[in-house]
Amino acid sequence: MLEQRIQQHFIDSADLKYQAAQALSKPIAAGVQALLACVTSGGKVLACGNGGSAADAQHFSAEFVGRFERERPELAAVALTVDTSILTAIANDYDWNRVFSKQVRALGQAGDVLLAMSTSGNSANVLAAIEAAHEREMTVIALTGRGGGKIGALLRETDVHICVPHDRTARIQEVHLLTLHCLCDGVDAQLLGDQETP
Ligand SMILES: O=C(CO)[C@@H](O)[C@H](O)[C@H](O)[C@H](O)COP(=O)(O)O
Ligand SMILES: [Zn+2]
Prior knowledge:
- α1 (2-40) runs parallel beside α7.
- The longest helix is centred in the first third of the chain and has 39 residues, at 2-40.
- It is globular and about 50 Å long.
- By secondary structure, it is of the alpha/beta class.
- The chain has helices at 2-40, 52-65, 84-93, 101-107, 124-135, 149-154, 169-192, and strands at 45-48, 77-79, 113-117, 139-144, 160-163.
- The chain has seven helices and five strands, in the order αβαβααβαβαβα.
- 57% of the residues lie in helices and 11% in strands.
- It starts with a helix and ends in a 6-residue tail after the last helix.
- Zinc ion binds at residues 52, 170, 173.
- Pathway: Carbohydrate biosynthesis; D-glycero-D-manno-heptose 7-phosphate biosynthesis; D-glycero-alpha-D-manno-heptose 7-phosphate and D-glycero-beta-D-manno-heptose 7-phosphate from sedoheptulose 7-phosphate: step 1/1.
């Protein structure tokens, strides 16, 4: 029955979030430190991903540049998923796999962060973006699932890997969104103090 099916989604999502709280609090805290190091030295975050993860890249950038829950100075972030002229030109003239990496090479500087999201860990354009970020001496914060896939193998020790312990894309995305909010909250808490949220 439909209502049962819906309730099962809520239960499965909540179960995974309980499990992931244990597994992910350490790498998420490392992600907060990487973001802080970036923004306090004048750096910016470039965010990318496909489909739901493209929406997540934009969601994160909106909260970084605008605000999360508390008033604070603007923080620099750009979602690499929004400029349809850039995206279509690169896809048309080169290859869809290069839509993010060419933007990373154009905009990325040492000390910036690439926030790379892929539930499978295998999207070729996200992998290429990570390679470009390494070329630019940027730190990568990767949000993945399913064991991390090829992204897990590509990351360096100085990068941060937040790998959701699940195989289903929707469930992984639900934890990615929570992770993004933890990252924003963590940065705010470090910048402004840990006062209670409204
Ligand atoms: O949102 C969803 C599924 O929940 C889809 O749009 C999903 O993001 C797309 O299939 C993506 O292309 C999947 O890419 P990835 O997460 O494996 O990198
Ligand atoms: Zn979705």
